[in-house]
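Chain A, query sequence.
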Amino acid sequence: MRAYQLLLAAAVVAVAVAIAAAANRGHAKPQMMTDAVQRSADGELASLGSATEWLDSPPLTASELRGKVVLIDFGTYTCINWLRTLPYIRAWAEKYKDNGLVVIGVHAPEFAFEKNLDNVRREVKALKLGFPVAVDNEHVIWRAFDNQYWPALFFVDAKGRVRHHQFGEGEYQQSEKLIQQLLTEAGANDVSRDFVAPVGRGAEAPADFANVKSAENYLGYERTERFASPGGAVQNVRRAYAVPAQLRLNEWALAGEWTMTKEAVTANAANGRIVLRFHARDVNLVMGPATRGAAVRFRVRVDGHAPGASHGVDVDADGNGIVSEQRMYQLIRQSAPIDDRLFEIEFLGPGAEAFAFTFG
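Chain A, predicted structure.
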């Protein structure tokens, strides 16, 4: 009996480690009950005709794409896992376009504000994707591919058959090797057998997975975990929160006047703070102004001090930044050694919303 219990405990630990690793390489959308949709039956490319809008391209159809090798790239613009794949997706699109590869992004939003077409257009332009993007606000294309992940790649051959999929970050050489194979099968000449080696910068830099011990966490009451403010969360009601004397790893708390809604927490007064104990090289926060067009100044601290050389691209060395758009902000990028640290963001005015922490 003792041996069985040890084996069972080891299995539970292994599963937990695998889940934590997966959470930092890609994440799944909660399954939803949906009406029947046209699925990718028998491994064939599903319809793209339900797109809310197309960016940087006229609408593309499955029939028009026959004869081309197609890479379908599912993402949403605040997803750090998707952002870190972009250097490879851009490089493949450019390298193999003359061989017949067509890359199509499918933007399937996670948060309500990611359905705003002005937001999506802004981020597609800022990210310099360079390939067509189908906006899938109602997740119809997502369901047609039976997808559940950001990021997700579907590889379609010239006959319109889905030959492979890749969920989450990584496996880049295997993916590129498959692209080369499918292009060769389609009759393309002079297909390079080399592999791209892009350099991701800023938020697109590869994660330091060996040192990531903090997993993505949402701040709205629907999905948040490890909320540690005394008295717990009160849903949809303005309330004064406080930070406990001690936070354990991956616990977080609010200080000041906040309202916690299904998706986010909103600072109702100046000097509202979010405090988190984390272990990772990078700290990112999805956030934005509650009122469109507004701007809220904020200040970041690590272990009570300005981040200095450990600041992210969206703050300066003194930890100062401005939240003026609904997007992901990179706040901390540390150098070694990586250890448990206390992160704090203070909003110097009211009206900022925060949605989710991610790490790298």
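The first strand starts at residue 27 and ends at 28. Helices lie at 2-23, 62-65, 80-96, 117-127, 140-144, 172-185.
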